[in-house]
Design a protein that fits this description.
Layout lengths: L13 H12 L7 H14 L3 E5 L2 H11 L7 E5 L4 H9 L3 E5 L10 H6 L5 E4 L12 H9 L2 E5 L7 E2 L2 E2 L6 E5 L12 E5 L2 H10 L23 H12 L1 H18 L6 E2 L6 E2 L6 E3 L6 H10 L5 E2 L17 H9 E3 L8 H30 L1
């Protein structure tokens, strides 16, 4: 029986065609037509005034924070339940990440928890959109009320819209990842979007070693080499041309999972009204009392690759703190991400769901036997 992976990229004909064109043009680094065309396509899809391609999603976060002048002595509020890149980007500026809890329904930053973390040193809030969900708009209102910047980590939700409007447009800066397992990929790559002219101009300059945008080799501030290559952008342009079909298939897969697992005891992320999600990775929480890791092992034996959801950042050795963030800890302990790539067939979705239901039933039965044994 073949193993069903968690993710594989979806390629058409133009990815290789555009890459070969970039190679033959001689423009293979950070200059070339595909960088410009990819950024234009990003602007069209998102509706943002400015879209700047960068070398990966992690540097997109660091670039955004740096250009908002976040640095030593500042604090940035971030959910503890997130991929570690969110937190690392804050630490790289010299600022202090301040961990907040998430909500039980959508597993995303809890506005009430975030508000309790605000101090006189708070400079920004970093909501993170994870898996199938996007953050509560109340985060933006909270930031406005306290004069804070918002850097929204949209790494996993490219293509998601709320009431027809792309996510991330209400933040000062929003960031995306185009890693190989994302909805669209450039191999390695990322982007920042913003509607702030001055901020966008600074990010564009700083990503290219701080070189003046109108005076070559004149550098008037510290910058970084965060540029995307023309080859990566060529892949991205071909991908974005296929975005509609990729999203349609991923949304179909998510709907199938919800139907197949409806009576299994698992819990899905709650979607806010009006959300049309890109459904990056369909993820669920196993029932309370079920051993998540044992379920994953059982599914692996049935030829299904899965992933645990992210661990809490405040449990990581370099950020370890004794904090009371119970919702995030519960989600991190019970969450599993399921195969969600566009080429996954309906029959394979059913196979994954069947393997999960079988594993949960077995774990539940084992738990009952252990409980009965302890009673004796």
């Amino acid at each position: 029986m073949s193993m069903i992976p968690v993710y594989t990229p979806s390629f058409g004909e133009n990815e290789a065609k555009y890459v070969m064109d970039a190679v033959q043009s001689g423009w293979i680094s950070s200059l070339g037509q595909y960088v410009d065309r990819f950024e234009a396509a990003l602007r069209e899809v998102t509706g943002a005034k400015h879209a700047i391609a960068v070398s990966n999603g992690s540097v997109a976060l660091h670039l955004a924070l740096h250009c908002l002048d976040v640095g030593p002595g500042d604090e940035v509020i971030v959910p503890t339940f997130t991929y570690i890149a969110s937190v690392n980007a804050i630490a790289l500026t010299g600022a202090t990440p301040v961990f907040a809890d998430v909500r039980a329904d959508d597993w995303l930053l809890d506005p009430a928890s975030a508000e309790r973390m605000i101090t006189s040193r708070t400079k920004a809030i970093m909501p993170v959109d994870l898996y199938s969900g996007v953050c509560d708009p109340a985060i933006y209102e909270l930031a406005r009320n306290h004069g804070l910047a918002v850097v929204e980590d949209c790494a996993e939700v490219f293509g998601s819209t709320v009431d027809g409007r792309h996510v991330g447009l209400d933040a000062n800066v929003s960031t995306f990842s185009f890693f190989g397992n994302k909805t669209i990929t450039t191999g390695e790559g990322g982007a920042v979007i913003s509607n702030d002219d001055a901020l966008a101009a600074r990010m564009r300059k700083v990503k290219g070693q701080g070189q003046s945008l109108d005076r070559r080799y004149w550098h008037d501030e510290i910058g970084f080499n965060y540029r995307m290559t023309n080859i990566c952008a060529a892949i991205g342009l071909a991908q974005i041309e296929r975005l509609h079909e990729i999203l349609q298939r991923k949304q179909r897969i998510a709907a199938l999972y919800r139907g197949e697992l409806a009576n299994s005891g698992v819990t899905f992320q709650h979607s806010q009204p009006g959300l049309r999600s890109s459904e990056w990775l369909v993820s669920v929480l196993v029932p309370v009392g079920v051993d998540r890791d044992a379920v994953m092992r059982s599914m692996a034996e049935d030829g299904i690759d899965t992933r645990p959801v992210f661990y809490c950042a405040h449990h990581m050795p370099m950020y370890r703190q004794n904090l009371d963030l119970p919702v995030a800890e519960d989600v991190a302990a019970r969450g599993i991400s399921l195969p969600s790539y566009p080429a996954l067939s309906d029959e394979e979705v059913v196979r994954v769901a069947s393997a999960m239901k079988k594993a949960i039933r077995q774990q539940s039965a084992d738990g009952e036997h252990r409980a009965a044994g302890e009673g004796r």
